[in-house]
Amino acid sequence: EILVVRRTLASIFAGSLEAGQDLLRQKNVEGARFCFEFAADADPDSVSGLQVKAMARALAGDRKGAIEALRSAMKRVKNHAAFSAWLRKEHAFDKLRDTREFRALLAPGPG
Known about the structure:
single chain
C-alpha cells in the first residue's frame, strides 16, 4: 500500500513538472506556478521541486515566496557550490539578485 502511494506521488510529481515546463514555454507563468507548487507538494523534500517552485514564484513577482522556496531547497541540497552556481545563472531570479536575501543564499555553505 505504501509503495502504491509513493509511486502515485512520484507520477504526480513528474507529470506536474512536465506540465509546468510546457506552460512556461507558452509564457503561462501562473499556470506553471500552479503545476510547480503541486509538484513540490507531492514531493516536499525534492530539491528540484523546490527549485522550480522558486523559479515560478520569482517569475510571478512573488519575491518573498521565491526566497522562501530557495531557502527550503538550500537546506536539502547536498552540493552547495553547484546550487549557488545555478542560482547565479538562472534568469528567473534576475529581479532578485540585488536583494539582501538573495545574496545571502549565495554565501558559501557547507560542502
